[in-house]
Amino acid sequence: MxxxxxxxxxxxxxxTVVRHLISRLRNESIVYFGDTARVPYGSKSVETVRRFAxxxxxxxxxxxVKLIVVACNTVSAVALEELRxxxxxxxxGVIDSSARAAVHLSKKKVVxxxxxxxxxxxxxxxxxxxxxxxxxxxxxxxxxxxxxxxxEGWIVHPVAKMIANEYLEGLIHAGADVLxxxxxxxxxxxxxxxxxxxxxxxxxxxxxEAANEVITILKEKDMEADSGGRVFRHFYVSDIPRKFKDVxxxxxxxxxxxxxxxxxxxxxxxxx
Length: 272
Hints:
44% of the residues lie in helices and 17% in strands. By secondary structure, the protein is α/β, with parallel strands linked by helices. The chain has 2 domains: 5-93 and 209-270, Rossmann fold (3-Layer(aba) Sandwich), CATH 3.40.50; 96-206, 3-Layer(aba) Sandwich (Rossmann fold). The longest helix is centred in the N-terminal third of the chain and has 16 residues, at 46-61.
């Protein structure tokens, strides 16, 4: 199928997911939507996040996507099942696949999870891991300051190291041997996070695991794009914040071509 894969996130963190998809699915076209006008989602109510999720999904479907990746952990935590029940295309979140990886990788059966306040308070990772193996202990920690650090580019800054040590000390003492990076911003800070927890702890990148699930679905449903076809990558945002290009390219790992600021008339939530 030549139709593109759609990805949405509350902002630009989902570009780390796109990075994995591009590197592994070179024949697939991508349509990305970052809801930068309404970020962050992690501190908003469940009802508001669900409304945003439906609106973003409709936006991508209007662009002919064949599969949607919900690159936002908060949306995956509180709205994924509702989205799957409402729309006919396959919809992939970033929680279930990460939970499977964490359970598989943990030898001690002690898993740490870091994410936004919304993701942690939802207990979505605890529920997903318990469904796979109820004997695995899960210790979660909200790390809200990681998002601005990632966007500022302070990925190895002394302040980032100090904050990482403060956030992650409890998870180390809990004996976790696997740590789920439960926010798509966090892989940008992978080095400082790994230094804080030590090399004995395996990091699970939720974006990478979501990409693995996409690959599986495309193969199982015979939805893979043909080789040699036209490949495009379109990036849409609801606002262009200061330094967006620099930050976005750091997350994506390459130059962003074709960034489009969406007109109000093109977005379902502005319709009267």
